[in-house]
Design goal:
- The complex is a heterodimer of chains A (660) and B (407).
- Chain A has a five-stranded antiparallel sheet.
- Chain A starts with a helix and ends in a 15-residue tail after the last helix.
- In chain A, a hairpin with a 5-residue loop joins strand 1 and strand 2.
- Chain A has helices at 2-21, 28-31, 39-45, 47-51, 58-66, 72-80, 129-144, 149-161, 168-174, 181-198, 202-211, 218-227, 255-264, 274-283, 301-313, 323-332, 344-393, 401-418, 422-447, 456-478, 505-527, 529-539, 541-546, 551-576, 583-598, 603-623, 628-645; strands at residues 84-87, 93-99, 102-106, 113-118, 122-124, 230-235, 243-247, 289-290, 293-294, 334-339, 494-496, 502-504.
- Chain A has four domains: 2-134, no CATH class; 145-227, no CATH class; 272-320, no CATH class; 362-658, ABC transporter involved in vitamin B12 uptake, BtuC.
- Chain A has 660 residues and is an alpha+beta fold.
- Chain B has 407 residues and is an all-alpha fold.
- Chain B has a two-stranded antiparallel ribbon with strand order 1-2.
- In chain B, strand 3 (341-342) and strand 4 form a beta hairpin.
- Classes of the chains: A alpha+beta (660), B mainly alpha (407).
- The interface between A and B is large, with 56 and 56 residues.
- Chain A: The chain crosses the membrane at residues 373-393, 400-419, 425-444, 505-524, 556-576, 588-616, 628-645.
């Protein structure tokens, strides 16, 4: 659109000086023109046909023009755009442009400027839509073999959007001369698609359908779907046309539907509905009686029918078909789904093609679902890994764990307020979130948790008190609305494998982060002094203490470490979810589930739990995509039942480590 | 001579007397039966609070006496409310439909369809789901108030207890159950109007009285139910049964080795308290007027635990005190009637800061006063519990401790 305006503006600017110079009426230009050949000759010969084209007769002329060589495409384009005029005096054909009261003329063959003419001398040529369609089809050929590749691509896209039967021949003709291999491939694909839709022989259409195999392109499905579209209708005898499916009333369709089809086909009168009966009866209440029955009995449907029959007998209301009569009518006819496409071989091939495609699509969707499940699992894992330390190793139920996640996310938000660069801000936020939540965790352990190690249920309650206090505190500080935590630009977008399978970079990043944390956890717990001491203290505090380990210090550090990881998880989760004061709440129950299902005390159990829960939730969502709430509901039910059979989780600790 | 029930439970008489006085005073000060010093909405709040006290008793039975920290009892409370709410909403809608129908009598099908359209219009439906089959019958729905939560608790408890899920695991499991239930009810497909919930429950069909009167009647009903619940619970915990469940709380394994069917006891208490909770809910929601799945969110059940903990676990009157005190104070603070606290640099608005205060005071109670408010009663009655503290004298948890040994 913009381009058009620019061109128009340039044309106007060019035209203005021309007009200033040519103040004298032009006269010599025609006489001095060279003897016309090619396009010029054709135009001269067919001036009258061009001026008053009819769809019946113009075909050969257009073909001739199209074949005439240089200038043909420009002229056809002008003709289609109603920019061609005929000079009344000598029937010469020009490409015209309105300039004020006059027309600026240009030569149709060379495109050179040919002066101006007043409006009275020029007769505009206005081809009707039928003719314009013919011209358009001829033009396609030029566009498809335009020297400029971007023009060719544009033409292909236009055909792809809005293909017609007439495009097929020029498209085929342009393929052998195509030089760009990419555009050539596109042309060949489009040619096959158009063949499916508009091919004359059913054999070539079927061949084209089969040539695609199980291609999952949307364009192919868009081409095949209309072929197998059906219309449902009723027939007096056997169904006619390309029958997709014969329908039996009572089995495939209900009697009411069948009757509606009959009414639609004008094979049966429309039935008087129950509400119309009710209205008719209400309109004929006389002295508390309707059709000879008292009004009070009208709450009984049978009495209503009787009363209506009585009224109909008296001729006060139209007759109503009884149910039995309607049933008879329904049974006397046949019903079928009829393909709009008349050729049964083509529809069969299209159905087969669609089946292949949909099988392939389901496979792809399965792969996509797998990726989704993986990313959900890594989110759950990330949210739960802090708990794997505080709950899994230390056996402390920390209900405020969700608030530590929120705290991390808000840290990211505050950092972004001060550091505008997104990449840098996230890099700053990650360690800062760890530091802050580590501090919060240590404070909580020192002030509250350490007094309650022997009373786990009370730990649950006390940490819940902290949780509600923190949540309200966040609300007071940051307000109730969601705060933005923007991811760096290089994490935007998605890794696209094909039309169906894709995964956003941020989810890949979270997956990587989850793996990093798994490694970090394993390293800390198994390879460092801290990990050794943590394990010793959780197994037997008094024995550990007699070995020179300070249990208080170890508990404090371990709790802080678990909380710190929750803070980092908060930054990661905040990058794709909304940062609100309640975001931690969304993860807390799932996180506990993850740890419990996986098996308390085992990090690989937590990993397995996250995978199981993520995969399960995605697969339930896949069965019922409209309803994520249902997916969560059924997932929790599954977990409750799962715990019946494996109360200690997927990976159960054995022996001394099990604790009891 | 064996000591009688009342002499074993001196708190019962006290409790009944205080409850009766309370109800009488409120009645005499209400709009309906007195000068109207107490507004009708206040009467409703007090009535609702009595229902909350009832569910707190249930919570105390299951947690304070049996040691099962259930985070799911508010789900049973909500379910009871839904069951009675279905009848209230159905009957009221039927009255509206019949009133607007005109002279021509409707068939039963037409009435049902019209009710369906009225009730489910907001969620884009018009059919009454199958679970509304008996919504027109009060006795059936009253039966469901007991049956549905009772059966749910029975099945859930049987599954959970037989696989020996105990302690915090059981708490998390009950919380998951609550979450699943509230998520299920949030869906429109559940047939209970999704997140819209049931509304207009304060209008009792077939009752000509105005809200002034009906609110007082509900207060009486709630007080009566609370009294019954208290006496029943006292009877349960005072006998041999009570000893067994306290034993389960203190050391489950030992009770099992003594030959008691621990799972059976736990299942009985769990189911019974679920039913009490459901009855409390069925009384609560007609006074609240509206119920939606948000009320059953896991957090509500945790608040229930908060009340009982603040009141004092293991004593029935403690639970009642906690629920009454916290919910009254809470509605006082959140109602915006507490004056702001200017600190010079910042003004503390209690509407915003009440939750922080509640959370922190809850932590403090857990840490410093495990007996909760009912510890005050001990102070008054000069009861001192043995001191347990100092270094343990043996290697195991629960061994005799230094301070304890000194007494």
């Amino acid at each position: 659109m913009h381009k058009l305006f620019i061109w128009l503006a340039i044309a106007v600017m060019l035209a203005c000086p021309v007009r200033a110079q040519d103040t004298s009426p032009q006269s010599g230009s025609v006489t001095s023109a060279p003897a016309p050949t090619g396009l010029g000759a054709i135009l001269a010969d067919n001036a009258q046909k061009i001026a008053r084209p009819s769809r019946m007769t113009i075909g050969p002329v257009i073909d001739e023009i199209a074949a005439s060589g240089p200038g043909a495409s420009r002229f056809l384009q002008a003709w289609a755009d109603k920019r061609v005029g005929l000079r009344e005096s000598d029937d010469a054909v020009f490409i015209i442009k309105r300039v004020g009261q006059d027309y600026a003329l240009s030569d149709p063959v060379t495109g050179e400027d040919a002066g101006t003419a007043p409006r009275s001398e020029i007769k505009e040529v206005k081809p009707n839509s039928g003719v314009r369609a013919l011209i358009g089809a001829a033009l396609v050929k030029f566009l498809l073999s335009d020297p400029d590749p971007s023009k060719r691509r544009e033409a292909l896209q236009a055909i792809e959007r809005d293909g017609e039967a007439s495009h097929l021949a020029p498209l085929r003709a342009s393929i052998p001369d195509e030089t760009d291999p990419k555009i050539k491939a596109e042309k060949q694909r489009l040619e096959r698609l158009l063949t499916i839709r508009f091919g004359k022989e059913s054999a070539e259409r079927i061949a084209a359908i089969e040539s695609f195999g199980s291609d999952t392109g949307l364009d192919l499905r868009g081409t095949l779907n209309p072929l197998v579209a059906t219309r449902r209708s009723a027939f007096a005898g056997a169904p006619e046309g390309n029958v997709a499916d014969e329908l039996k009333p009572g089995r495939d369709i209900s009697d009411a539907e069948a009757y509606a089809l009959l009414v639609e086909a004008k094979m049966a009168p429309a039935r008087i509905s129950a509400s119309e009966v009710q209205r008719a009866l209400a309109a004929h209440v006389v002295n508390g009686q309707v059709g000879g029955l008292p009004l009070s009995e009208m709450s009984d449907p049978k009495a209503r029918e009787q009363a209506y029959a009585a009224l109909a007998k008296a001729g006060e209301v139209p007759q109503r078909l009884t149910d039995a009569e309607a049933q008879k009518l329904v049974e006397a006819h046949s019903y079928a789904d009829i393909y709009a496409e008349p050729d049964p071989d083509v529809t069969a091939a299209a159905e087969a093609g669609l089946t292949r495609v949909s099988r392939q699509v389901s496979l792809m969707q399965g792969a996509d679902l797998g990726l989704d499940a993986l990313s959900l699992a890594s989110i759950y894992f990330l949210a739960a890994i802090g708990l794997a330390i505080t709950f899994g190793v230390m056996r402390v139920i920390n209900m405020a764990h969700g608030e530590f996640i929120t705290m991390g996310a808000y840290t990211g938000y505050v950092v972004q307020l001060f550091v505008p660069d997104k990449t840098l801000s996230v890099l700053v936020a990650l360690p800062l979130a760890f530091a802050i939540t580590f501090g919060a965790g240590v404070a909580m352990e020192r002030l509250v948790i350490r007094y309650l190690y022997k009373r786990p249920l009370e730990t649950l309650l006390a940490s819940f008190g902290i949780s509600i206090a923190l949540q309200q505190l966040f609300k007071n500080i940051f307000g109730t609305q969601a705060r933005p935590l923007t991811s760096p630009p290089w994490l935007e977008g998605a890794l696209q494998f094909n039309d169906i399978v894709s995964i956003s970079y941020i989810r890949i990043a979270i997956f990587v982060l989850a793996l990093v944390f798994l490694a970090l956890y394993l390293w800390v717990m198994r390879r460092t002094r801290l990990g050794l001491e943590v394990r010793a203290v959780t197994q037997n505090p008094s024995m550990a203490a007699s070995m020179g380990i300070n249990p208080d210090r170890i508990n404090m550090l371990a709790f802080g470490f678990g909380s710190g990881i929750a803070g980092i998880a908060g930054v990661a989760i905040g990058l794709f979810a909304k940062v609100t004061s309640e975001m931690g709440q969304d993860y807390i129950v799932q996180s506990f589930m993850t740890v419990v299902v996986g098996g308390v005390g085992s990090i690989f159990g937590t990993l397995a739990g996250a995978t199981l829960i993520g995969g399960l939730q995605k697969s339930i969502e896949w069965l019922n995509p409209s309803n994520t709430l249902a997916a969560q509901t059924y997932m929790i039910l599954f977990i409750i039942i799962f715990i019946q059979f494996r109360p200690r989780g997927i990976i159960a600790l054995k022996g001394r480590a099990a604790g009891d | 001579m064996k000591p009688g029930f009342l002499s074993k439970n001196p708190s019962v008489l006290w409790f009944l007397a205080i409850l009766a006085c309370f109800t009488l005073v409120i009645t005499l000060l209400s709009h309906a039966y007195g000068p109207g010093v107490i507004s009708t909405s206040m009467v409703k709040t007090l009535g609702k609070t009595l229902c909350l006290c009832l569910i707190a008793i249930a919570m105390d039975l299951v947690w304070g006496y049996t040691g099962i920290l259930s985070l799911g009892h508010f789900a049973f409370f909500g379910l009871g409310g839904y069951m009675i709410g279905m009848w209230l909403m159905y009957e009221r809608t039927r009255d509206i439909v019949l009133a607007s129908a005109g002279d021509f009598p409707m068939t039963q099908q037409e009435v049902r369809d019209a009710i369906g359209t009225q009730i489910f219009g907001v969620v884009g439906g018009s059919d009454l789901p199958a679970i509304w089959t008996f919504a027109g019958s009060l006795p059936m729905q009253l039966l469901f108030v007991v049956l549905v939560p009772g059966l749910l608790a029975l099945i859930f408890g049987w599954l959970a207890f037989r696989s020996r899920v105990t302690g915090v695991y059981l708490s998390i499991l009950t919380q998951a159950m609550t979450l699943a239930l509230s998520l299920y009810l949030f869906q429109n497909e559940s047939g209970l109007r999704g997140n819209n919930g049931l509304s207009g429950l304060q209008n009792i069909p077939g009752l000509a009285a105005d809200q002034d009167h009906s609110s007082v009647w509900f207060l009486w009903a709630s007080a009566f139910a609370l009294a019954l619940g208290y006496v029943l619970s006292a009877a349960i915990v005072s006998g041999k049964f009570g000893s067994v469940i306290r034993g389960i709380r203190d050391d489950e394994a030992r009770v099992r080795f003594l030959g008691y069917p621990v799972e059976g006891y736990k299942l009985f208490v769990f189911t019974l308290t679920a039913v009490i909770a459901a009855i409390a809910g069925a009384l609560y929601y007609p006074q609240a007027g509206i119920i939606n799945p948000g009320e059953m969110a896991p957090i509500a059940s945790i608040y229930l635990a908060v009340w009982v903990a603040i009141g004092g676990r293991g004593r029935l009157y403690g639970a009642v005190m906690g629920a009454f005190f916290v919910s009254i104070v809470s509605s006082w603070f959140t109602g915006g009637r507490v004056p702001d606290l200017p600190l010079g640099f910042y003004t503390v608005k209690w509407v915003d800061w009440w939750q922080v205060l509640l959370g922190l005071s809850f932590v403090l109670v857990t840490l410093l006063a495990p007996k909760g408010l009912s510890g005050l009663v001990d102070l008054l009655a000069h009861i001192r519990s043995p001191r347990r503290g100092g270094t343990p004298m043996g290697p195991d948890q629960g061994s005799l401790q230094q301070e304890e040994a000194r007494e």
